[in-house]
Amino acid sequence: MAAPGLNFQTSLFDSGESTPDLEFSTLTRHELSQGAWVDHAPGWLRGAGTLFQWLLDNAPWETTTQVLFDKTVVTPRLVASFTGGGDPLPAPLEAIRNALQWRYGRDFDSVGANLYRDGKDSVAWHGDRIARTVKDPLVATISLGFPRRFMLRPRGGRTELSLLLQPGDLVVMGGTAQRTWQHTVPKVASAGPRISVTVRHSH
User: Fold this and answer.
1) Per-residue pLDDT, 55
2) Which is deepest, 45, 73, 89, 155, by most CB within 10 Å?
3) Which stretches of the chain drop beneath a pLDDT of 50?
4) Is 167 among the domain residues?
5) Structural domain tally of the chain?
6) Which of 143, 177, 131 is nearest to 38 (CA)?
7) pLDDT, position 59
8) Is residue 142 part of a domain?
């Protein structure tokens, strides 16, 4: 389904063709505990606003549910998947996946997106569910639209890394990050729409 009645004014810097920085020139690695790490590359995707608007208008957005404290509730964001149906990826998403595969030497086999419509949409503390047979899985996120805070903590501990993600920012979680750490995009009092494109090495 189309995203209902959402609009976000992108800057001229974010317009134009959506292309990743193949040099990863702004990347910084944050070494975490227990063998986990996080790479952050500000402004990695040029033309982030173009991809944001295309996804907003064309992604197969759907509402999902989750079980929370033995209760089924509506997930506080919309989700879309681009893999599993046999169709080729849209060209900008394929370019992103190819760049990540070249950099990290892994087959990124899952591509999806999350739409945070406003400050009420969020994702709770969690580690991505990836099969135990996958050693040191990689999860990459490209942030589009309104800036939001992305926070990480050791599992069950206190926040130790907080990144304010801007349009086009890339975050890659690797090592044991999905097993020993948790991440969240918390609710805020006010925010415009944001899309996160998530690319996973999960099989």
Assistant:
1) 96
2) 45
3) 12-13
4) yes
5) 1
6) 177
7) 95
8) yes
Can you read off the two tokens belonging to residue 136? Answer: 């040191």
Return d(Cα 140, Cα 127) in angstroms, integer: 13
Q: What range defines the domain where residue 172 resides?
A: 26-200
Phi, psi of 143 (to 5 degrees): -95, 135
Query: Tell me, what's the pLDDT at 169?
Result: 98
Distances (CA, A) of 98 to 21, 41, 74, 83, 190: 12, 16, 33, 14, 35
Residue 4 lies in a domain: no
pLDDT for 16-58, tens place per residue? 899 999 999 999 999 999 999 999 999 999 999 999 999 999 9
What's the CATH number where 97 sits? 2.60.120.590
Backbone angles phi, psi at 19, to 5 degrees: -135, 135
Output the pLDDT for position 29: 98
Residue 16 lies in a domain: no
Residue 142 near residue 49, CB atoms below 8 Å: no
Residue with tokens 């206190």: 158
* Furthest-apart CA atoms within the chain: distance in Å: 46
Residue at 109: amino acid letter: D
Residue at 24: amino acid letter? F
Only one residue has tokens 């569910």, namely 129
Q: How many residues does the chain have?
A: 203
